[in-house]
Write a structure and sequence with these properties.
Elements lengths: L1 H30 L2 H46 L12 H48 L16 H104 L5 H82 L4 H17 L3 H10 L1
Helix pairs in contact: 1-2, 2-3, 4-5
Length: about 375
């Protein structure tokens, strides 16, 4: 729209002198007055000059304001301010130039923002890399068993990782302490249990030998009781046969005594009394032998059951001894495992170890004559 108006202004400025000449010519032809022609010509020339001057002044002012706006935008860009933009005004040429400059500024601004973001990311990456390398350098001694280190990063994500590493180191310190304590207790207790197991195995072996000797003695006793039982059985049978024979003899003597009762009465009575007494003694001896035989057989049965019990006790003792030896093997393997655990944490350096070492060094320095002098020299240095 402004470009069309500018063209119309240029056209009007070009047509004004022609129009003035036409007016002057027409008026001069009507009046045939040369003075009037000159006056009108002079006035028309002045008016045309003033009109063209006004038109060019307006055109120059519009162009100058647009150029000044573009110049201010360029100066602001040189100064580093990328936020200013040129306002589109003027003809099409200036409009295209304004749009081109604004587009260029937008492109440069986006590139600079991208570069700034990339630079910030690069700086952040470098800072993070340095912090990570520092953190790795601080906690690297942990891989060699030194648990006295402490990560010092306290800000950002690296600070969070540092706190996690410090917590992990503290957990490792507690684990190492507990492992040392538990392995020491396990080694002590396993040593005691092994000693007790060996002593118990020896005691069980001694008891088994005693049970074996007792079993042999009881077997000999059972054999003796069985022989005694057989002897008593023979004695019972002999006494029973003697008693039977005595009863038959007593019956015969009783019949013959009836025939010759008058002839030898005194001697037969004495013999009959002796036979009756012998019969009574034999009956008592038979009863005694039977009771002794029954008692001997019951004792033999009891001795045989005792032998079975002794064999059972010996077997149980053997099983107990085997179980004790198996338990001793398990205890020994547990002791070996505890020793391995103790060796695995023996290389760890704990904060308490450093305190103990410093305390020992102080005690050694205090015990040596040059210890106080060395401290004074170190303080002076």
């Amino acid at each position: 729209m402004k470009s069309s108006l500018f063209r119309i202004e240029i056209l009007v400025a070009a047509m004004l002198p022609v129009t003035a000449l036409w007016v002057i010519g027409i008026l001069s032809m009507r009046n045939l007055d040369s003075v009037l022609f000159l006056v009108v010509l002079a006035l028309s020339s002045v008016l045309v000059f003033l009109a063209e001057l006004a038109i060019f002044w307006f055109f120059q002012r519009t162009t100058r304001s647009q150029q000044q706006a573009l110049t201010e935008v360029c100066r602001a860009y040189v100064a580093g301010d990328l936020s200013q933009r040129a306002t589109p005004q003027g003809d099409e040429t200036l409009l295209e130039l304004t749009h081109t400059i604004n587009t260029l500024l937008e492109h440069i601004s986006s590139q600079m923002q991208t570069a700034a973001r990339n630079q910030f990311a690069a700086n952040e990456f470098q800072r993070t890399t340095q912090a990570v390398q520092k953190l790795i350098g601080e906690i690297k001694p942990v891989m060699e068993g030194d648990l006295r280190v402490h990560a010092s990063a306290t800000s950002g994500d690296i600070g969070l990782i540092s706190d996690i590493c410090n917590a992990l180191i503290e957990e490792l310190v507690d684990l190492a302490k507990w492992t040392r304590y538990s392995t020491g207790r396990v080694k002590t207790k396993t040593h005691t249990l092994l000693s007790n197991a060996v002593e118990l195995a020896r005691t069980t072996e001694t008891q088994m030998l005693r049970f074996s000797e007792t079993t042999e003695a009881v077997e000999k006793l059972v054999a003796f009781v069985q022989r005694l039982s057989n002897t008593l059985q023979l004695n019972v049978e002999i006494v029973h046969e003697a008693l039977t024979a005595l009863k038959q003899h007593t019956g015969l003597r009783a019949v013959s005594a009836d025939v010759t009762v008058l002839r030898n009465e005194g001697s037969d009575l004495h013999l009959v009394a002796m036979l009756q007494r012998l019969q009574t003694d034999l009956q008592r001896q038979e009863q005694l032998l039977k009771s002794l035989l029954d008692s001997t057989q019951s004792h033999a049965t009891l001795a045989e059951s005792m032998i079975s019990d002794l064999y059972a006790i010996a077997r149980r003792s053997h099983d107990a001894s085997t179980a004790i030896l198996t338990t001793a093997q398990y205890i020994h393997s547990l002791s070996v495992l505890a020793q391995q655990w103790h060796n695995s944490v023996a290389t760890f350096q704990l904060p308490e170890d450093a305190l103990q070492e410093s305390t020992q060094e102080e005690e050694e320095d205090s015990m040596t004559p040059e210890g106080p002098l060395r401290k004074q020299v170190s303080l002076l240095s």
